[in-house]
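Data card: per-record layout.
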Amino acid sequence: MVIQKQAIFIFLSLLLVFLCTTWSIISQDGMFYTHDFVHGARIVEMQRAVLAGHIPARWSQNFNYGYGMPLFSFYAPLPYLVGALCTLLGASLTTAVKALFIIPSLVTLLGSYLLGRRLFGAAGGVLTAAFITLAPYRAVNLFVRGAVAESWGMMTIPWLLYGLLRIYDNTKDGIGYVIFATSFITLLLSHNLMSLMVIVFAPVMLLALLTPQSRRFFSTWVRMYRNIIVISLLAVGVSAFYTIPAFLERPDTIVTTAVTGNLFDYHLHFVGWRQWFVENWEYGGSLEGPLDGISFFLGWPQLGGSILTMGLLLWYVAHYRKSIFQKTWPSRGVRLVSMLFGVTALLLLLTHRFSTSVWETLSLFSYLQFPWRWLSLASVFMGLLATAWVPLAPVQLRKIFVTVGVAWACLTSLTYFRPVSTQNVVEQHYYSDPPRIAVEMSNTMNDFAPAEFYLPPEGARTGLFSCSGCGQVRDLVEQPHRVRFAVDQATTSLVSGSVAWYPGWQVFVDDLPVATTTDEYGRISWQQPAGTHNVRLVFLETPLRKTADSITLISAVLLGGIVYKHSKHA
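The structure for this 570-residue chain is written out next.
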């Protein structure tokens, strides 16, 4: 009966937290306004690619003003694949977009609970789930920025840490390897920048969580590090079909200049320390200086819990011989709290101008654009820090204290987890019409346009594929990654197709490959011989992409074998 009551308490508490983060989404029929409103168009483009058999999806047909660009070679394919599957199963486009906002809240909630329970017991798990899931920065991502990809990346962090803890406790824990590998692959396929942040910060996170678990940390680590490294490398390998082209094909696009200069210069977006403690909830943008129209508040419950934990830590240090502390908060807890505080402080420091020299030394950090992105990791570790006091509470009072903490977190978060406006948003921003995507969305999202492409004088392409300089075109069939038609050509001519050239595009005339070049606007061009011929334009896998695809297949097989081996001997 006691176990049943505890399960009901946990379920109701987690349900309350989930509803606080998602009620304003599920309670309305339409969609709400956010800074990034191209999610519907991305889902539509992914759906078209999947239906055409363009797997893995790389090319978006209608972005870049209808001339196409390799959107899904660089930007978060997994969330939009899930959105496309929702629409293929019969969901409306608006419902699919809403699903992309709801899923990270649910996954974050469950992962945070399991992580907190592993460290602080069931009551601590509930409070950890509330503090992390209701972190104000998550609300900024969902309801202000509309940063679906970053929200998906952030939802993997608790699961990564939980998987690591399971593996640390039992190096033959097959479930731990599955959790760790799956969450890492999800992170890599969801958000490039979050992946970079986690990889860079991984040693610190490992020390923070694993060191306190045992005084013999390093000897234990030697026994398990090979498994962790192998699983990590195989997880990277499984995502290689995406990560390798995303990293090595950057010079073929405008992404470097598009995301690191002008308004995206990280020097303009450091956070003042006062902004961590000032609510200032608005729906504007990030500006230079402390007067941003966007909040970087850490949250009163999260701050209050962290202060309580640190106060108890100081009291423990001063009264370490008291038996109550020795029994309820042994040295392991002290080490854990100390490490959590250090990691949280370091992450917050990376958002502040004081860390400018670090940003300037690590050139890859310029791609992060906004130093305040580190709040995604800081919110997770602060949620853990703010919960670490729970083991000190008397057992008979823990449920009361946790209930108060969850209620406090929910009540103070209602201001954040709600949209600014829902008027006419669907009509304005969520549609599947290709010409509208080509004309309207390309102005908003064109960071991955081919480097050699320039918008022609005629503007966006809003109709079917056209062939400049061709004779009469017949039997046109167009798909996202290939076009075929018959043409009656009077004389041999250099012609241009209405597709932006990018490595992988190949022209076939009567099934024979022909040399391609580009016209003055970066559109694909070729010599079209006189006479009647069948022409195909196909977006092929380059040697680099084929290699990446092969690595994915091999890594998936090896990873499955290792997981099966550990599961069998667990």
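Known properties of this structure: Strands lie at 467-468, 472-479, 482-489, 493-500, 505-509, 512-514, 516-518, 523-528, 531-539. The mean pLDDT is 89.

See the next section for split statistics.
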